[in-house]
């Protein structure tokens, strides 16, 4: 298996001198092609910082960061669709910025919306959709960037449990069908165990890799299955111990 | 393997079922006539109360009726006025001036606003000057304008533009300043740079604030224009303002009040136009209450 994301001894500092904030401290992590890796940690562990670095939105302060993929796409907790464009228009804009010709854009956007099961909604405005549907449009937009590496920053954090549960199935399906590599940030332990091939636990302030859990339960998994719950409990204990370390 | 295997068909049904449940049915907005009446009657009542109060002041004989005529006389004069083509020539002249001046102000204000928000030194240099200009009563510019351009159309245009352009520029600047951070990050992720970032993100995102700027700019240009038409009487150009000044010179109080009403009505009609544009945008973007 080839490595698509290699994070080697990466450090990230904000500011300088005595006021400098060390967000990531010698973090090393590799993600193989087609892997689904969940990053888990309490507040201040630099999960989002790490994603910004991998997405190229921010620069590393030390170490090396290597990406071997076609394109990296990033999704946030908010769908952040543009309200002046239709649903299809939002996806088409991503295609356009990739240099896709006018004639192909509409067709390709339609196909991408089919993938996220929103085939009939291309002409709607983003505000006419529910939160879960908007997140699926954001996913279609990410796929439109011809991305094979998908970074997700708590993408389902603002959704209700039922919608989240169904979107887990959907994300798993699309990950498999589109042969994506996913780096998924969450603070929900069960969600991480439900989705990930691996769950990487980060420490807080500064962010370091504490432990790398391999999740072997066969897919499809259920978030309420006993296996997922048992493994989630184990990871939660580890996470709590880390949080307690910051007392006083 | 777990007992329950999730088949693709089953999730497809779950997804579309959930979508159907979450898409709220369109609220019943009642029939059209009723809605118009609901929004119209408070306005009509307000107008009726204002006219009644006016009539009461006239009845109290606070001023003689040749100085302060009653609504009946004024509306009779207004009706007669509205049937003369000459009057409509005046309205046309005034509106032509208003639109020309406003469009000029929009063009200049947009260029200045875009430049100021793009280049930091320019903002430091003239950012606060723009706000300062906005607070300047436009009538203060007329003496200078008359010295520069004599009693001409240019003098009026000068003041209209200088009154309205700062509002337009400010609307655009604050629109650009307050583009949400997440949109900017999305733009970055999608690979927008330089000009394409402006075209696909910054300009459309600043539209609501730009429209408020236009609306405010219009109000300023309309006020400046009215002041200008009263002060700068261009020979041969019988604008609404010039006619009003004329009526005052002839002590025709009823005609003066008629012109006040005309200006008020034009102002209200244009305001409705701006509000319609604003509401259409809000509805499109989903910024309205329902």
UniProtKB/TrEMBL annotation, chain A:
ATP-binding as UniProt keyword: yes
Molecular function (Gene Ontology), one example: ATP binding
Keyword field: ATP-binding, Nucleotide-binding, Transport
Membrane-spanning segments: none
One Pfam entry name: ABC_tran
SUPFAM superfamilies (alphabetical): P-loop containing nucleoside triphosphate hydrolases
Domain ABC transporter: 5-229
Record protein name field: ABC transporter ATP-binding protein
Organism encoding this protein: Actinoplanes flavus
Organism ancestry: Bacteria, Bacillati, Actinomycetota, Actinomycetes, Micromonosporales
Automatic annotation (TrEMBL), chain B:
Keywords for this protein: Cell membrane, Membrane, Transmembrane, Transmembrane helix, Transport
Protein localization: Cell membrane
TM annotation in the entry: 44-62, 98-117, 129-149, 155-179, 254-274
Lipid bilayer topology: Multi-pass membrane protein
Keyword Zinc: no
Residue intervals of the ABC transmembrane type-1 domain: 91-274
Gene3D superfamilies: MetI-like
Domain of life: Bacteria
Keyword Transmembrane helix tagged: yes
PANTHER family: ALKANE SULFONATE ABC TRANSPORTER-RELATED, MEMBRANE SUBUNIT, TRANSPORT SYSTEM INTEGRAL MEMBRANE PROTEIN
UniProt record similarity statement: Belongs to the binding-protein-dependent transport system permease family.
Designated name of the protein: ABC transporter permease
Lineage per the UniProt record: Bacteria, Bacillati, Actinomycetota, Actinomycetes, Micromonosporales
């Amino acid at each position: 298996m080839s490595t698509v994301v290699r994070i080697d001894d990466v450090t990230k500092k904000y500011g300088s001198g005595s006021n400098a904030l060390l967000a990531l401290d010698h973090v090393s992590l590799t993600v193989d092609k087609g892997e689904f890796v969940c990053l888990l940690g309490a507040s201040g562990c630099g999960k989002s910082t790490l994603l910004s670095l991998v997405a190229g939105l921010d620069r590393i302060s030390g170490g090396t960061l290597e990406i071997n993929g076609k394109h990296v796409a990033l999704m946030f907790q908010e769908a952040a669709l543009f309200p002046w464009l239709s649903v299809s228009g939002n996806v088409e804009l991503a295609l356009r910025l990739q240099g896709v010709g006018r004639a192909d854009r509409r067709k390709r956007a339609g196909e991408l919306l089919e993938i996220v099961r929103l085939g009939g909604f291309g002409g709607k405005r983003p505000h006419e959709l529910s939160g879960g549907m908007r997140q699926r449009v954001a996913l279609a937009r990410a796929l439109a960037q011809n991305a094979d590496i998908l970074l997700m920053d708590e993408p389902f954090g603002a959704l209700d449990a039922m919608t989240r549960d169904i979107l887990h199935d959907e994300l798993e399906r699309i990950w498999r069908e589109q042969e994506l590599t996913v780096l998924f940030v969450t603070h929900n332990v069960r969600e991480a165990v439900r989705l990930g091939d691996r769950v990487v636990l980060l420490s807080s302030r500064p962010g370091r890799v504490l432990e790398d859990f391999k999740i072997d339960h066969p897919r499809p998994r259920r978030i309420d299955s006993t296996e997922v719950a048992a493994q989630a409990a184990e990871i939660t204990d580890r996470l709590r111990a880390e949080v307690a370390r910051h007392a006083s | 393997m777990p007992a329950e295997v999730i088949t693709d068909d089953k999730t497809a049904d779950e997804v579309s079922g959930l979508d159907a449940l979450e898409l709220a049915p369109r609220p019943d907005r009642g029939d059209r006539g009723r809605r118009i009446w609901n929004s119209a009657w408070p306005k009509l009542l307000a107008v009726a109360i204002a006219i009644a109060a006016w009539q009461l002041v006239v009845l109290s004989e606070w001023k003689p009726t040749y100085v302060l005529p009653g609504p009946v006389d004024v509306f009779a004069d207004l009706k007669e006025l509205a049937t003369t083509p000459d009057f409509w020539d005046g309205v046309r002249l005034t509106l032509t001036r208003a639109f020309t001046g406003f469009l000029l102000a929009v063009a200049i204000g947009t260029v200045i606003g875009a430049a100021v928000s793009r280049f930091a030194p320019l903002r430091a240099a003239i950012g606060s000057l723009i706000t300062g200009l906005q607070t300047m009563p436009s009538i203060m510019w007329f003496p200078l304008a008359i010295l520069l351009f004599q009693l001409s159309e240019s003098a009026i245009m000068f003041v209209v533009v200088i009154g309205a352009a700062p509002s337009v520029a400010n609307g655009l600047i604050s629109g650009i300043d307050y583009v949400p951070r997440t949109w900017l990050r999305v733009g970055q992720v999608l690979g927008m740079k330089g000009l394409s970032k402006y075209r696909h993100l910054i300009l459309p995102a600043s539209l609501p604030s730009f429209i408020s700027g236009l609306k405010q700019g219009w109000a300023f240009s309309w006020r400046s224009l009215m002041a200008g038409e009263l002060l700068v009487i261009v020979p041969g150009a019988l604008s609404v303002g010039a006619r009003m000044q004329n009526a005052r010179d002839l002590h025709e109080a009823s005609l003066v009040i008629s012109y006040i009403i005309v200006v008020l009505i034009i102002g209200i009609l244009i305001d409705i136009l701006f509000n319609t544009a604003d509401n259409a945008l809000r509805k499109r973007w989903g910024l309205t209450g329902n």
